[in-house]
Write a structure and sequence with these properties.
It is a single chain. The chain is α/β, with parallel strands linked by helices. The protein has a domain of 245 residues: NAD(P)-binding Rossmann-like Domain (Rossmann fold, 3-Layer(aba) Sandwich). The protein contains twelve helices and twelve strands. The chain has a seven-stranded parallel sheet with strand order 3-2-1-4-5-6-10, sandwiched between helices. Helix 1 links the parallel strand 1 and strand 2. Helix 1 crosses helix 7 and helix 2 packs parallel to helix 4. The radius of gyration is 20 Å and the shape is globular. The relative contact order is 0.14. The C terminus is likely disordered. The protein binds nicotinamide-adenine-dinucleotide and thymidine-5'-diphosphate (TYD).
Amino acid sequence: MSDTHILITGGAGFIGSHLVRHFLNAYPSYTITNLDSLTYAGNLVNLRDVEHLGNYRFVKGDITDAPFIENLFSENRFDGVIHLAAESHVDRSIASPLEFVTTNVIGTVNLLDAARRCWAGDFSGKRFYHISTDEVYGSLGREGIFTEETPYDPHSPYSASKASSDHFVRAWHDTYGLPVVISNCSNNYGPCQFPEKLIPLFINNIRLKKPLPVYGKGENIRDWLWVIDHASAIDVIYHRGNNGETYNIGGHNEWTNIDLIRLLCVIMDRKLGREPGESAKLITYVTDRAGHDLRYAIDSSKLQRELGWAPSIRFEEGLERTVEWYLDNQEWLDQVTSGAYRDYYEKMYSSSGAGS
Ligand code: NAD
Ligand code: TYD
């Protein structure tokens, strides 16, 4: 018999699917409801290995649809919410900023308000956990590191929408007493990431011998974290984090884009049996991204010190495993890049709110 019911939003996406699997495996007595509208980035194939479990339920629905969200909360007694659903790609946010405001800001406020009203009067044992990004802190120079006290200074429509949603989460805590917790994580990598983000895009392009579009000079720096380590950090924070607190999550693993890409090329040449240096020939320098943040680096010492979390694997090993996963799952790559899977979902889940 399940004792705890958690709503995970965005569970069909990259991080969400790893989180759903992590919770189902770690807490068989919990019921996990995965709410996802299945945008281009949501893919139920990511959860095929766990979808048969009796304590897992998928609900197709949109967090921007306030009446639907209100109903979902009144029909279910969620003990907690872990909110990941979002538009997540910086380049898309530059092209379509309003979609990011709608999903990331309005969608978050809808969830906050539904939780507040549904739990009204009794917040004991309840938790609203908002998953955010280190990009809210802006950009670092060559020195420095983001701590939980770093002032917000977002530059892209994506990071501005996430910063805004973080402020709303804190406002619902300070104004209504909603028991919230927020984490801000660095760049994730691993299996099931949509091939528009750097690592899976470049793996796919190398596989297909297509150019590797490096923005600017490739000197921007990101701090990369294995996605399964992010899921374990979320578990620790969900269960043991303090209400109203923020926790930074990161791998202490900074790479310039060009160094990362060169390492990826070496791994890909080896795995594909190509001549050393062949993949690197695909590197093509292109016009820089507008407002491109130079450097992100996260200080996760609070999480390590207070809650005892630490990353589990080194980047070189994680990148190797990541490459292996995409090469073993080329059908997944072909499907998500062809759009065929979206046609399938449109047929399967055409009405909003249909569960499986
Ligand atoms: P993703 O784009 O892979 O997945 C997002 C999921 O949200 C998809 O399944 C999509 O269908 C769903 N979704 C989008 N709009 C929705 C809506 N209106 N209603 C319901 N569902 C909707 O993203 P991701 O990389 O897994 O990121 C998940 C969360 O983690 C996001 O909030 C993101 O800001 C945050 N984050 C991501 C990273 C990273 O490196 N990917 C790092 C730090 C924080
Ligand atoms: P991305 O995966 O989009 O994550 P974010 O912008 O959220 O950090 O990009 C990671 C880095 O790689 C970032 O500095 C932009 C760069 N990049 C490229 O150089 N070329 C590309 O085609 C993409 C998608 C990203």
